[in-house]
Specification:
With 139 residues, the chain is an alpha+beta fold. The chain is built from six helices and five strands, in the order αααββββαβαα.
């Protein structure tokens, strides 16, 4: 039996803060956003509510080498992560449930889902890596 949890004001604030981002914020980003509204909220309260929101399927988590990032989108979609700065972007690729079904049949696991993560170098990091024009010409 699932535990019923009341919807607290703090949880609503955390959910709203995640929904206000399209950049897959960290827990610290959410904490900073909420502290601007409620200076009494604790970091633990924010972290606890992020975990509860993920458990209840209201947000999703993207696990990266740099830590967890949070996403208001809970539909099946892929992510692209920059290997340099760690930014996370949504990718417009369709979710392929047949992969889950095939793996489920082959492995004996049940309730199989997948998350697709691509890695690359984002346009911002590419631009910062380009030499300046004066450096190229020696001017």
């Amino acid at each position: 039996m699932a535990v019923q949890r009341r919807n607290t004001r703090q949880r609503a604030m955390v959910l709203e803060a995640v929904r206000n981002h399209d950049d897959h914020p960290t827990a610290d980003d959410i904490y900073v956003d909420i502290r601007r509204i409620d200076s009494k909220i604790s970091r633990g309260t924010v972290y606890r509510n992020l975990n509860l929101l993920e458990e209840t399927g209201q947000i999703s988590t993207v696990r990266t080498e740099g830590g967890c990032r949070f996403d208001w989108r809970v539909d099946g979609h892929a992510h692209l992560i920059c290997r340099r700065c760690g930014c996370v972007a949504d990718v417009a690729l369709p979710y392929r449930p047949e992969i889950d079904t095939d793996l489920q049949e082959r492995s004996g696991f049940t309730d199989v889902t997948h998350a697709t993560l691509f890695r690359g170098i984002c346009p911002g990091c590419q631009a910062r890596a380009l030499p300046t024009e004066g450096a190229q010409t020696g001017a």
